[in-house]
């Protein structure tokens, strides 16, 4: 199981790197989908299968499809790929590179026995998630739903057909 | 992992692909019957070998990738569609014991997730073909399938609330007294419509409506790549029929006959109903389809969730 988790984590990281370096927008989005799927595998192996399925349904299955949809509407072409290429010059890599190295070192430290024995978490069932969402974190849930409602109202307002047409 | 489990995993896709191939012949014969035509009746007894003949022909056709297409994505698109459909079957319990992962505690969500990923097949096929009709078909498919996924998920909530579990085997077990089609008739109706839209079958096959889009998202596909779209569509019909059987028709439950036979019988009935819908109904306009979804099915499925919740709470408090 440990090996499977490491493999999935490796795919996640590789996918994420590919997302940044691809020049064709759709290819980048596809790598992002692969990253999300690999991440959901990690979640399953950690015992959080409900969260993993939500990751697949909502992020990979809905939000990313909308990304592809928008990119299809924009009809990007060769000039856009060229511009992407110009943005990715070596100096732009410096800052993110340093930060990523710090995180990677931390991660490696956690993965080695130096940080103490690894405790496998208990599997989390849908019941557990539901109970904690609507008891302990109910305020958060309400706040998030306010935010979503606001987003919905805004989208409706922007997309509304006005009288006299503009 | 035990030896029989591995055998099941290998055999399931083989059987499913065979079923989907036979289904292409069954559909054409039934359409012929209902529309007072012959249908394919020349190859083999009753035309049964027509599917084999079609398969052979399509395998020997030139496997052509248009020079203007995005090659990698163009090749991957039909494979994605096929894989997501076949993977979904893993969570379907055929009997109390048969099936690959019928006990999975998030089985229903797994299937919804795989259906969500199936959208990529159509959308990417449309985008990578780099042609107008394919692109329009792909965009229609994206909007249609994402919308109908919402109603599909919402219509299933009632079933999940009544069974108290996302595991499909638990859901069948909860239908011991009464099939869910009776208390969840509203959810059943919404699920059927969403299922047709999700598999983009006639009458909701607007992403490939040939009267306005050529062949829609698979206009540029030929040979076995087109064959894979074709077969995964039929596998999708079998999948939705299996889901209807499991969620609303009591799965393997039934008197006298063995469990597996009941499951197969019920699934066959739903498949034939799907074909009957194709034979009987005209295709709506695209905006009508979307309006039906958001203005009728969404309120209906929300009402279903509310009513089911209220009744369950009242019953619990009594």
TrEMBL record, chain A:
GO terms for cellular component: plasma membrane. It is found in: Cell membrane. It comes from the Bacteria. Its EC number is 7.1.1.-. Keywords: Cell membrane, Membrane, NAD, Quinone, Translocase, Transmembrane, Transmembrane helix. It catalyses: a quinone + NADH + 5 H(+)(in) = a quinol + NAD(+) + 4 H(+)(out). It is a multi-pass membrane protein. Gene3D superfamilies: NADH-ubiquinone/plastoquinone oxidoreductase chain 6, subunit NuoJ (1.20.120.1200). The chain crosses the membrane at residues 28-49, 56-77, 97-116, 137-158. One of its GO terms (molecular function) is quinone binding. It holds the Pfam family Oxidored_q3. Composed of 13 different subunits. Subunits NuoA, H, J, K, L, M, N constitute the membrane sector of the complex. Belongs to the complex I subunit 6 family. NDH-1 shuttles electrons from NADH, via FMN and iron-sulfur (Fe-S) centers, to quinones in the respiratory chain. Couples the redox reaction to proton translocation (for every two electrons transferred, four hydrogen ions are translocated across the cytoplasmic membrane), and thus conserves the redox energy in a proton gradient. This is NADH-quinone oxidoreductase subunit J.
Automatic annotation (TrEMBL), chain B:
Keywords: Cell membrane, Membrane, NAD, Quinone, Translocase, Transmembrane, Transmembrane helix, Ubiquinone. One of its GO terms (cellular component) is plasma membrane. Its EC number is 7.1.1.-. It is an enzyme of class 7 (translocase). Coiled coil: none annotated. GO terms for biological process: aerobic respiration. Its main location: membrane. It is a multi-pass membrane protein. It catalyses: a quinone + NADH + 5 H(+)(in) = a quinol + NAD(+) + 4 H(+)(out). It is found in: Cell membrane; Membrane. Pfam families: NADHdh. The chain crosses the membrane at residues 6-26, 73-94, 106-127, 148-166, 178-197, 226-250, 256-277, 289-314. GO terms for molecular function: NADH dehydrogenase activity; oxidoreductase activity, acting on NAD(P)H, quinone or similar compound as acceptor; quinone binding. HAMAP family: NDH1_NuoH. NCBIfam families: PRK06076.1-1, PRK06076.1-2. NDH-1 is composed of 14 different subunits. Subunits NuoA, H, J, K, L, M, N constitute the membrane sector of the complex. Belongs to the complex I subunit 1 family. NDH-1 shuttles electrons from NADH, via FMN and iron-sulfur (Fe-S) centers, to quinones in the respiratory chain. The immediate electron acceptor for the enzyme in this species is believed to be ubiquinone. Couples the redox reaction to proton translocation (for every two electrons transferred, four hydrogen ions are translocated across the cytoplasmic membrane), and thus conserves the redox energy in a proton gradient. This subunit may bind ubiquinone. This is NADH-quinone oxidoreductase subunit H.
